[in-house]
């Protein structure tokens, strides 16, 4: 037990208590939390910065609007309904097609119009929001994910999570939806997390729940060795989010759209720690490396370049060379 | 001081403050650390039987004064038809009974509870210097010889008094002493004799009367002691043995030359003092002492609240202990539950139902509630009305269980009403959401996790000693607060993370 603890420490594994106490509480000023917790506000901020986001079709603020969904939807046949204050992917409903009063969700199931309306009222009622506050239902255009991911995903949209510390991208992973996750990209809902080399965007191996996987459970494709398209702009967009919301410890979720390229789906002020398992790397050594730079104002471009050099290709990781040989 | 270290100081301060208050109450005020320790107290009763002669009848009785060694509480008087007045000052207390006419014998009672008290109290005022008694011959010259003899053997008032008492006991053959010792038998006689010898040297002295509290006695003898003023203090001597100091069991009742009881218009047929020793929780004793002491710290105890309020606070003050358990389970172990502190409230309910039955009842209500909740989901009710419906259903379920178990003669079923129904409704709601979003397994797992945390919290708050401590030493919650503050800065790994991240502790990560 003691040696596990020691090796976890020397490998720089970040635990929840330290993440909360030393990073989120210190780096994330509470007054900036609404910028990420409110996805509508967040979307506005990102757009002001010129960062690409999925198109917002409509907002449903009042219960009455639920029964006039048709008006809100217009001619859109594919869309996503999500709570503006949702967390952990709860309450997100993906609709891929529409046939008269029936809708088709990401699993291919038929959803009655009344079910859809009920879902919207649940969202507005605050069922999925933190603390049960009344919420707003966002209706966003559906992202058509890049066909590059075709072999690596089951329904749903794979997304890319980048941890950005004080503006420096420090670790990234791709999250692949599975049958178990119902097309959602959240790890605790059953999606697979795949580590990505920060410099090249090549995947290095996956994790399902807390255990490693090498093949996608639904498609059978090899998970590692895959080149994520548009990698340099993904990392660059992630780094720029720091200026948009001023949170020092930030999780940036990016999706790849077939036509629009990388889009920022949402930001997270309390990003999970499974990214460490997906990358087989502890976060702390990298966070310490960024802290080692001291207080300095650098452009996003400089930060990305520095981070890619510092944290790129794990096999030549400057700050974490063969952690277990030098370990303990 | 940097902000990052302030928590250490704060935490230590809180723990110290709580600990010191606790220690003060135990050491200085004598509160027992553990419940059900017993101490002793005495029920003292003076019984005065009077026989009327004619006209109005008055009777007076001297009452025990507040003095070193014992404290008198719960005094009562039984004196049918008589008017009662009390005369009190610091060194003398007297009860006066009066009645216009009386046609038969009557018994007057005075009763009091006496407890030990370690506190010192003022004995008497600075005395006046007595004048030497004027004696006739042959006593005058005998006295002069005595005084001369004792004087040569003593240095000060204290040794002078001690010598006198010594001679009174041990010089039966000496002619001078014998002259005075004729007819001297009781301790009162000895004390009076010693007083007049002391007065020859202008040493103030005083008679002190009391009883011995050591056994159950039907008719307690009045014990007289001699108090001698040495210029600064009063010193007590046993006039018959010459021993100095107040015997542990001697309770001072009154001072001076007066008699214990006096009557006019009547005769005293009998005056009897009885003592009964009673064992009693030393907590009661400590509380009684505290009341008399006006100690601020002693007042910080729930014992001063009405009994019903006490039991409410007893529960409230246990909550921090339950919460401490939750903090440990969440931040050290890494368990999670529905609702941060919901397990504590469930644990409080378990106090009434006992653990196993409580868990069964909880599971019963939650699973039945879930069934209804799934049905409600199909009705597509809006959120708040649906929650309200779930609460109502939970209340109805609880009532049904009570009625059913009452009919079956199972008593625990009745205590189901103490379950926090709103909390249970929220648990049902959360469980059903998790059920839909992440599957039945996760939902049931998390539900059982909450139940586990509730059980662990219960096993802590059901410790008898804790319940006693929060009532008598509410300050233990300061210690809990200190610990919580300290735990709040624990940023190490959680126990479950050792499993979760175990691959990151492996030999070759890639």
Give a description of the structure:
The complex is a heterodimer of chains A (328) and B (510). Chain A is built from eleven helices and 13 strands. Chain A is globular. In chain A, 30% of the residues lie in helices and 23% in strands. Chain B has a four-stranded antiparallel beta sheet, covered by helices on one side. A four-stranded antiparallel beta sheet of chain B has the order 4-5-2-11, with no helix packed on it.
SSE diagram, text form:
The complex is a heterodimer of chains A (328) and B (510).
Chain A: H1 2-10, H2 16-27, H3 33-37, H4 39-48, E1 56-60, H5 63-66, H6 69-73, E2 79-83, E3 93-99, E4 102-105, E5 110-112, H7 113-125, E6 137-141, E7 159-165, E8 168-176, E9 192-196, E10 203-208, E11 211-213, H8 231-245, E12 249-257, E13 261-268, H9 275-279, H10 284-291, H11 300-311
Antiparallel strand pairs in A: 1-6, 2-3, 2-6, 3-4, 4-5, 7-8, 7-12, 8-9, 9-10, 10-11, 12-13
Helix pairs in contact in A: 8-11
Chain B: H1 3-27, E1 38-52, E2 57-63, E3 69-78, E4 83-88, E5 93-99, E6 106-117, H2 139-152, H3 157-170, H4 175-181, H5 187-200, E7 205-212, E8 223-229, E9 234-237, E10 250-255, E11 261-264, E12 266-281, H6 282-293, H7 296-299, H8 307-333, H9 342-353, H10 355-379, H11 383-408, H12 421-438, H13 440-461, H14 464-472, H15 476-487, H16 495-500
Antiparallel strand pairs in B: 1-6, 1-12, 2-5, 2-11, 3-6, 4-5, 7-8, 7-10, 8-9
Helix pairs in contact in B: 1-15, 2-4, 3-5, 8-9, 8-13, 8-14, 8-15, 9-10, 9-13, 10-11, 10-12, 11-12, 12-13
């Amino acid at each position: 037990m003691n040696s596990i603890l020691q090796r976890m420490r020397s490998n720089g594994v970040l635990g929840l208590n330290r993440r909360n106490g030393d990073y989120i509480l210190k780096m994330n000023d509470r007054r900036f939390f609404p910028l990420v917790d409110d996805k509508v506000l967040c979307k506005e901020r990102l757009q002001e910065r010129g960062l690409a986001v999925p198109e917002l079709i409509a907002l449903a603020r009042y219960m009455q609007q639920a029964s006039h969904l048709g008006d809100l939807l217009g001619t859109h046949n594919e869309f996503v309904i999500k709570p503006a204050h949702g967390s952990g992917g709860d309450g997100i409903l993906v609709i891929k097609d529409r046939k008269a009063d029936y809708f088709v969700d990401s699993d291919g199931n038929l959803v009655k119009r009344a079910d859809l309306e009920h879902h919207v009222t649940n969202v507005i009622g605050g069922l999925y929001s933190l603390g049960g506050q009344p919420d707003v239902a966002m209706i966003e255009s559906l992202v058509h994910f890049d066909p590059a991911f075709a072999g690596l995903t089951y329904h749903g949209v794979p997304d890319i999570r980048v941890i950005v510390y004080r503006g420096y991208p420090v670790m990234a992973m791709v999250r692949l939806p599975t049958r178990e996750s119902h097309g959602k990209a959240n790890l605790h809902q059953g999606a697979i997390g795949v580590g990505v080399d920060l410099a090249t965007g090549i995947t290095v191996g996956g994790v399902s729940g807390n255990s490693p996987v090498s093949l996608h459970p639904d498609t059978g494709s090899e998970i590692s060795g895959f080149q994520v398209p548009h990698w340099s702009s993904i990392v660059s967009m992630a780094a720029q989010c720091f200026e948009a919301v001023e949170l020092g410890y930030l999780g940036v979720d990016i999706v790849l759209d077939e036509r629009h390229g990388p889009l920022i789906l949402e930001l997270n002020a309390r990003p999970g720690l499974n990214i460490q398992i997906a990358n087989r790397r502890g976060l702390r050594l990298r966070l310490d490396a960024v802290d080692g730079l001291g207080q300095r104002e650098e452009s996003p471009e400089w930060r990305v370049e520095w981070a890619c050099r510092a944290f790129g290709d794990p096999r030549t990781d400057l700050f974490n060379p063969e952690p277990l040989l030098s370990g303990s | 001081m940097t902000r990052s270290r302030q928590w250490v100081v704060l935490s230590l301060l809180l723990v110290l403050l709580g600990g010191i208050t606790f220690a003060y109450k135990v050491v200085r005020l004598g509160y027992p650390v553990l419940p059900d320790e017993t101490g002793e107290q005495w029920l003292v009763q003076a019984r005065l039987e009077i026989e009327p002669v004619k006209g109005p009848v008055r009777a007076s009785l001297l009452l025990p004064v507040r003095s070193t060694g014992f404290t008198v509480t719960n005094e009562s008087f039984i004196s049918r038809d008589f008017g009662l007045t009390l005369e009190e000052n610091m060194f003398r207390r007297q009860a006066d009974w009066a009645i216009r006419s009386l046609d038969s014998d009557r018994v007057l009672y005075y009763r009091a509870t006496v407890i030990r008290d370690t506190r010192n109290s003022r004995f008497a005022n600075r005395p006046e210097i007595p004048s030497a008694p004027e004696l006739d011959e042959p006593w005058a010259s005998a006295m002069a010889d005595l005084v001369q003899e004792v004087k040569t053997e003593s240095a000060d008032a204290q040794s002078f008094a001690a010598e006198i008492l010594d001679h009174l006991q041990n010089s039966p053959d000496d002619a001078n002493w014998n002259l005075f010792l004729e007819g001297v038998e009781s301790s009162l006689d000895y004390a009076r004799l010693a007083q007049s010898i002391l007065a020859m040297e202008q040493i103030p002295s005083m008679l002190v009367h009391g009883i011995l509290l050591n056994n159950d006695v039907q008719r307690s003898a009045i014990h007289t002691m001699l108090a001698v003023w040495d210029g600064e203090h009063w010193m007590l001597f046993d006039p018959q043995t010459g021993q100095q100091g107040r015997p542990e069991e001697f309770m001072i009742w009154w001072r001076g030359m007066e008699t214990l009881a006096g009557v006019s218009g009547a005769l005293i047929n009998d005056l009897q003092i009885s003592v009964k020793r009673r064992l009693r929780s030393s907590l009661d004793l400590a509380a009684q002492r505290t009341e008399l002491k006006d100690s601020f710290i002693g007042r910080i105890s729930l014992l001063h609240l009405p009994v019903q309020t006490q039991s409410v606070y007893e529960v409230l003050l246990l909550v921090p202990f339950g919460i401490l358990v939750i903090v440990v389970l969440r931040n050290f172990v890494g368990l999670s539950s529905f609702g941060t502190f919901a397990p504590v409230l469930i644990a409080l309910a378990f106090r009434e139902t006992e653990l196993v039955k409580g868990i069964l009842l909880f599971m019963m209500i939650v699973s039945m509630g879930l069934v209804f909740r799934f049905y409600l989901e199909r009705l597509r009710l809006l959120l708040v009305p649906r929650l309200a419906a779930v609460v109502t259903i939970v209340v109805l379920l609880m009532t049904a269980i009570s009625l059913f178990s009452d009919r079956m003669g199972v008593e625990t079923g009745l205590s189901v009403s103490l379950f926090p129904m709103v909390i249970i409704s929220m648990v049902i709601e959360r469980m059903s959401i998790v059920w839909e979003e992440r599957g039945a397994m996760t939902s049931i797992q998390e539900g059982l996790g909450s139940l586990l945390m509730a059980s662990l919290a219960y096993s802590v708050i059901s410790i008898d000693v804790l319940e006693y401590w929060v009532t008598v030493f509410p300050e233990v919650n300061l210690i809990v607060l200190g610990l919580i503050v300290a735990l709040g800065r624990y940023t190490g790994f959680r126990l479950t993370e050792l499993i979760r991240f175990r691959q990151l502790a492996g030999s070759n990560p890639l």
